[in-house]
Amino acid sequence: MSEKTLAIIKPDAVKKRVIGRIIQRIEDEGFNILGLKMVQLSLEEAKTFYAVHKDKPFYDSLTEFMSSGPIVVLLLEGEEAIKHWREVMGATNPAEARPGTLRREFGFSLERNAVHGSDSPQTAEVEIKFFFN
Ligand code: CMP
């Protein structure tokens, strides 16, 4: 079933100058890119985006990091796009991500893990609306 998901190239990957390599991988994987833009979130916007994590100990650090520099957001479409994109990203912790995944290749730490992806159809809908209305 074709579905949509939201992908983010995080500030660490933008600073590392690997936007191009990540987008190349997205295209090579067969996703259709329906939307793409570079934005910088305010701290408030990052807090809203990650509101589901507001009670987690890493919330302040994560939202400061996500608003620390430009990010690239992409609206992706494809067969089982949510699962497919999560497979391409790899495990949240780059140290645990399998070789060949984006987080293994470009991530630095649990927080600075290069890319984000929606984790369910419900969050995909909310996250897509957040960036593409
Ligand atoms: P992401 O897919 O963007 O969704 C939430 C983010 O929180 C996650 O990637 C990680 O970057 C970050 N995160 C998850 N767990 C931790 C943790 N234990 N410490 C710091 N950051 C975390």
The helix content is 40-55%
What is the total tally of β strands? Answer: 4
Mean pLDDT: 98
Estimated structural class: alpha+beta
The side-by-side strand order for the widest beta sheet comes to: 2-3-1-4
- In the residues, how many domains can be counted? 1
Sheet bearing the most strands, described?
A: 4 strands, antiparallel
SSE sequence, one letter per element? EHHEHHEHHEH
CATH superfamily: Nucleoside diphosphate kinase-like domain
Low-confidence stretches: none
Proportion of residues in extended strands: 15-25%
Q: Categorize the overall geometry.
A: globular
CATH topology: Alpha-Beta Plaits
CATH architecture: 2-Layer Sandwich
Task: Offer a quick outline of the entry.
This protein is of the alpha+beta class and 133 residues long. 41% of the residues lie in helices and 21% in strands. A four-stranded antiparallel beta sheet has the order 2-3-1-4, with helices on both faces.
Give the tags.
alpha+beta; binds adenosine-3',5'-cyclic-monophosphate; 133 residues; four-stranded antiparallel β-sheet
What does this molecule look like?
It is a single chain. The chain is α+β, with helices and mostly antiparallel strands and 133 residues long. It has one domain: Nucleoside diphosphate kinase-like domain (Alpha-Beta Plaits), CATH 3.30.70. It is built from seven helices and four strands. It has helices spanning 11-15, 19-28, 43-49, 59-66, 81-89, 102-106, 121-131, and strands at residues 2-9, 32-39, 71-79, 115-117. It has a four-stranded antiparallel sheet, with helices on both faces. Helix 3 (43-49) packs across helix 4. The model has no long low-confidence stretch (mean pLDDT 98). Bound molecules: adenosine-3',5'-cyclic-monophosphate.
